[in-house]
C-alpha cells in the first residue's frame, strides 16, 4: 500500500512539473506575451524583438522558435524563418505548427517538393487529420492551382 501511495505522489509531482501551456508561459514571460500579441496584430518588428528576448531566456522552447519563424517569414526574411523553424523542429520533431509553417515557407520559396514532405510528416504525426495538416494541404492545393494557371 505504501508503494502505491509513493507512486501516486511521484506521478502527481511529475505532472505538476509538466511544461506550461502557451497561456501559462505568457503569464510567466512578459516578452513571450508581448510577442504573441504582436503576432496577432501583425506587428512583425515588435514580435521579432519580443520573441528574441524571450528566446534568450528560454533556449529550449520550440514554440518561441516557431513563432520567430512565423514573424520572420511574414516580415519577408525567409532565411531567418527557415533557421527558426528548423530550430523548433530540433527541439520538438513533432511540432505540428513548425511543420505547417515550414511547408508554407517552402511554398513561398518555390519548393513544392519540400512543402509536400512536411505535409507527409504531418500525416504521420497527426493520428487523425489535424488543423495544421488541413491548412498546409489547402496551401499546397492553392499553390498547384496557381502554377497551373500560369
H/E series, N to C?
HHHHHHHHH
The overall strand count is 0
| Largest sheet properties | none
Determine the fraction of residues in helical runs and give it as a percent range. over 70%
Please describe the structure with a list of short key phrases separated by commas or semicolons:
single chain, 150 residues, mainly alpha, 0% strand, disordered N terminus
Detailed description of the structure:
There is one protein chain. The chain is 81% helix and 0% strand. It has 150 residues and is mainly α. The N and C termini lie far apart (72 Å).
Blueprint (SSEs and pairs):
Layout: H1 2-16, H2 22-28, H3 30-40, H4 44-57, H5 62-75, H6 78-91, H7 96-108, H8 112-125, H9 131-149
Helix pairs in contact: 2-3, 3-4, 3-5, 4-5, 5-6, 5-7, 6-7, 7-8, 7-9, 8-9
Summarize the structure.
The protein is an all-alpha fold and 150 residues long.
Amino acid at each position: 500500500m505504501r508503494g502505491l501511495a509513493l507512486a501516486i505522489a511521484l506521478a502527481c509531482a511529475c505532472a505538476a512539473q509538466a511544461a506550461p501551456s502557451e497561456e501559462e508561459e505568457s503569464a510567466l514571460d512578459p516578452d513571450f506575451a508581448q510577442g504573441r500579441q504582436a503576432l496577432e496584430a501583425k506587428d512583425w518588428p515588435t514580435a521579432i524583438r519580443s520573441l528574441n528576448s524571450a528566446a534568450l531566456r528560454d533556449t529550449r522552447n520550440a514554440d518561441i522558435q516557431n513563432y520567430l519563424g512565423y514573424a520572420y517569414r511574414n516580415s519577408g526574411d525567409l532565411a531567418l524563418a527557415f533557421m527558426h523553424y528548423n530550430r523548433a523542429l530540433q527541439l520538438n520533431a513533432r511540432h505540428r505548427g513548425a511543420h505547417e509553417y515550414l511547408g508554407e515557407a517552402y511554398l513561398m520559396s518555390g519548393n513544392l517538393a519540400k512543402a509536400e514532405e512536411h505535409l507527409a510528416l504531418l500525416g504521420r504525426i497527426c493520428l487523425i487529420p489535424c488543423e495544421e495538416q488541413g491548412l498546409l494541404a489547402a496551401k499546397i492545393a492553392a499553390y498547384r492551382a496557381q502554377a497551373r494557371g500560369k
